[in-house]
Write a structure and sequence with these properties.
Blueprint: H1 6-31, E1 37-41, H2 42-54, E2 61-69, E3 79-86, E4 93-95, E5 98-100, H3 105-124, E6 139-146, H4 156-167, E7 175-177, E8 180-185, E9 198-202, E10 208-212, E11 214-217, E12 223-225, E13 228-231, H5 244-247, H6 249-261, E14 264-271, E15 280-287, E16 292-298, E17 308-313, H7 323-331, E18 335-336, H8 351-361, E19 373-374, E20 384-385, H9 386-391, H10 402-408
Parallel strand pairs: 1-3, 1-13, 6-8
Antiparallel strand pairs: 2-3, 2-6, 4-5, 7-11, 8-10, 9-10, 11-12, 14-15, 15-16, 16-17, 17-18, 19-20
């Protein structure tokens, strides 16, 4: 074997060793009934309380995101940090004894948060802005859901669903958190010093919400209780604000169709354009036969904040089916486009309005001409162009009275 191959081989062996070490430690923890530490951000708890208060009579639930931080010591336990919860979209089914998560919104939000956290780690690794213990990937942790009555444990259906997730190789999950929310409990005053797997939160109706926390590992295949600790949000990393392309999905669809209907070939992606997160949501646009691309860059709070435009010369060999690689190539050679002198942005406008203004300024398209029809005063006359009528000095004749109007008709 060539010496050049040795570093790659060592990397593979090291990865296998780490995998076996974690697996053996996990099996030892399981045999002794040990479960991870659990830390909850107060923000996640408040979002659970808000959702449970909105759907008092029906079941509901949300996805959870956070970190898994390993403890390298032999007897150390990993710690799960729950940072935030993510609501489903409008396709979620909520009934008194049924809850089904929505469609793809949660996946979009999780992907957005993961990409932003990835860039934040890359940008601030080794600085005070990224504590070393949190230099780990952001991941999906499981779903919480509200059950009717006093059903504080996961149901048999919950067990089957969790095992299906864990047995799916594509999920990449070795555990899930499955907290159960119930409401209508007698209010509890003060905190208990007994180590339990639940906590109470007061609701506006004078009763309490109770949240019981359950943990299931792929190798154990049963739910185990896990004791939570609630901490202030500022003690943990903060999640990025959602991008507009997620929360305004209909707006994104309209923007995309408007650009395509105007004859532009369009690709979309998010990218780190200014060196900081949140990432920008970007559009690559080009007209057939054009010698340059237009790059449109929007901030996470678009359309409240205005878009920016750049042009980049056509580059042979780029693959528009890979928008990230294409944008990266074009962004390296792009130049900002100066906004037209008479242009101003407002949230009611669309990217196409911006493109049209830029192309008019550059002489690439004619301004739209507005023709105002004027009724000629000659009997039997036809509508004429307003400018022509004005230049001829003619004005439409106003009937003196209703009878004259009828006679004129």
């Amino acid at each position: 074997m060539r010496a050049a191959d040795e570093p790659e081989l060592l990397g593979i062996l090291r990865g296998e060793y780490d995998h076996i070490r974690k697996r053996l430690r996990g099996m030892a923890m399981i045999s002794r009934g040990i479960v991870p530490n659990l830390v909850l951000s107060r923000r996640a708890v408040e979002r659970m309380l808000l959702a449970a208060s909105q759907y008092v009579a029906d079941e509901t639930g949300e996805a959870m995101v956070g970190f898994v931080v390993d403890d390298a010591t032999p007897e150390g336990k990993p710690t799960i940090y729950v940072l935030d919860t993510i609501s489903p979209d409008e396709t979620a089914v909520r009934r008194s004894h049924t809850f089904q998560q929505g469609d793809a919104l949660q996946d979009e939000v999780i992907w957005w948060l993961q990409e932003n956290w990835h860039y934040h780690r890359h940008q601030h690794r080794g600085t005070a802005l990224l504590p070393e213990r949190f230099d780990v990937p952001l991941r999906y942790l499981g779903d919480w859901h509200k059950q009717p009555g006093s059903m504080i444990q996961p149901s048999h259906g919950d067990l089957m669903t969790a095992l299906a997730w864990l047995d799916d190789d594509e999920s990449g999950l070795d555990f899930l958190l499955v907290p159960i929310v119930t409401t209508g409990h007698t209010a509890v005053v003060g905190a208990s010093d007994v180590d339990v797997n639940y906590f109470h939160q007061p609701m506006t109706d004078g009763t309490d919400m109770r949240v019981d926390w359950w943990y299931i590992h792929r190798d154990v295949r049963v739910f185990q209780p896990v004791s939570p600790e609630i901490v202030a949000p500022e003690t943990l990393p903060q999640m990025m604000k959602y991008g507009w392309h997620v929360v305004l999905a209909d707006r994104l669809t309209s923007e995309h169709y408007a650009l395509e209907d105007d004859g532009l070939l369009v690709r979309t992606l998010f990218y780190e354009c200014d060196g900081e997160v949140p990432l920008e949501f970007c559009f690559i646009a080009i007209r057939q036969g054009a010698s340059s691309f237009m790059l449109l860059v929007t901030q996470h709070d678009y359309p409240q904040s205005p878009p920016r435009a750049y042009h980049a010369p056509f580059v042979a060999g780029i693959d528009l089916m890979d928008p990230v690689a294409t944008f990266e190539t074009l962004w390296a050679i792009a130049e900002p486009i100066v906004e037209p002198a008479d242009w101003s942005w407002s949230p009611e406008k669309y990217l196409l309005d911006f493109v049209v203004a830029i192309e008019i300024e550059a002489g690439l398209r004619e301004p739209e001409r507005i023709s105002i029809p004027v009724i000629d005063d000659i009997p039997g006359g036809r509508p004429t162009d307003g400018a022509s009528a004005a230049s001829a000095g003619r004005q439409p004749k106003k009937p003196a009275n209703e009878a004259e109007a009828i006679e004129h008709e």
